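4.2 Preliminary Data

To establish feasibility before requesting continued support, the project team ran the inverse folding procedure on a target of 208 residues. The structure was first converted into the token representation described in Section 3, and no sequence information of any kind was made available to the design step. The complete token record follows.
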């Protein structure tokens, strides 16, 4: 194997660069400690006062280092396994859609919840959205992962968090955020597919 080929094998894709940027933001916020968590968490009282940045920043701050590192590992695994060939804008769209799904669900459907932190809701949205995009690209080999995600969401909705997840996170797990994130990710993936179809149609109809 030529040396140039070896180097190219280790060049990150746009999606991997984006995931690295997300991980760096999460780790930098975590380094801010309790003061950063107070400032950036999804907090109902702060949002009611117009602190709208919390809708986005709350997903990137965590309960502690174990919580943050666990989510960073999951993010890296998802991007490595499912985002091959995906444009960075598609991944951004899925992250925004999943974030919005969690925010809307928590604000309107969980009025008793006063604050929330963590990337897990967004990760479930990424998982769901990336699986839909892979299925759209005829990657049927990932169908078993769709089943696995569905079983996990049903388990959490009927039984509660998976064993040991609260201990690993260092606090209570808001499992309903996973469902809201997955819903947002699914809708985001549908939007990405529609945009791709429109773009492909415009290219096909272009007259040189």
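Position-by-position output of the design step:
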């Amino acid at each position: 194997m030529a040396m140039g080929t070896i180097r190219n094998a280790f060049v990150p894709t746009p999606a991997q660069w984006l995931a690295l940027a997300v991980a760096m933001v999460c780790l930098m916020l975590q380094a801010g400690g309790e003061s950063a968590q107070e400032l950036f968490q999804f907090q109902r009282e702060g949002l009611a006062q117009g602190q709208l940045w919390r809708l986005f920043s709350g997903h990137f701050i965590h309960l502690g280092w174990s919580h943050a590192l666990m989510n960073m590992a999951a993010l890296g695994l998802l991007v490595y396994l499912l985002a091959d060939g995906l444009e960075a804008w598609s991944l951004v769209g899925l992250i925004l859609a999943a974030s919005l799904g969690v925010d809307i669900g928590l604000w309107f459907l969980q009025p008793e919840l006063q604050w929330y932190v963590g990337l897990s809701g967004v990760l479930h949205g990424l998982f769901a959205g990336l699986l839909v995009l892979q299925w759209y690209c005829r990657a049927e080999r990932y169908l078993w992962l769709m089943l696995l995600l569905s079983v996990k969401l049903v388990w959490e909705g009927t039984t509660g968090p998976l064993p040991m997840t609260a201990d690993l996170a260092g606090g209570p797990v808001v499992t309903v955020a996973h469902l809201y994130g997955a819903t947002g990710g699914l809708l985001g993936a549908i939007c990405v597919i529609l945009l791709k179809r429109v773009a492909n149609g415009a290219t096909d109809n272009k007259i040189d």
